[in-house]
Amino acid sequence: MDASMNDADVAWLRSRDPFASMNPKSFPRTIPLEGILHNDCRLIRCEAGEVLVREGDYGNSAFLILAGSVSVMVDSLSQQELGRTPAEKLSWPEALRRFMFRSNVAESRDPHQVVPCPTNSAGTIRQLDDRQAIFLQDFDLVMREHEHVSLGPGELFGEVAAMYRSPRTGTVIAENEATLLEIRWQGLRMFRRDKAFAEKLESHYREQWLAIHLREIPLLRYLPEDKLQRVADRTQLGSYGRMEWDTDYKRQRKLPLAEQIKSEPLVAEEGHLPTDLVIVRSGFGRLSQSYGASHRTAAYLGKGHVFGIEELAYNALRTPQMPPRMLQHSLRAIGFLDTLSIPAEVFAEEVLPHIRRSELPASVAKWVTQAEKRGTDRRNQTRSPKSKRDGGRDLPIATGTQYQQTELIEFIVQNRLNNGREAMVIDLHRCTRCDDCVKACASVNDGNPRFARQGLIHDRLQFVQACMHCEDPVCMIGCPTGSIARDVDTGVVEIHEPICIGCGTCANACPYQNIQMANIRDRDGKPYHDQATGKPITKATKCDLCSSQPSGPACASACPHDALVRIDLTESKPLTQWLERRS
Question: Which part of the chain is the Cyclic nucleotide-binding domain (predicted)?
Answer without folding.
Answer: 47-189, 219-319
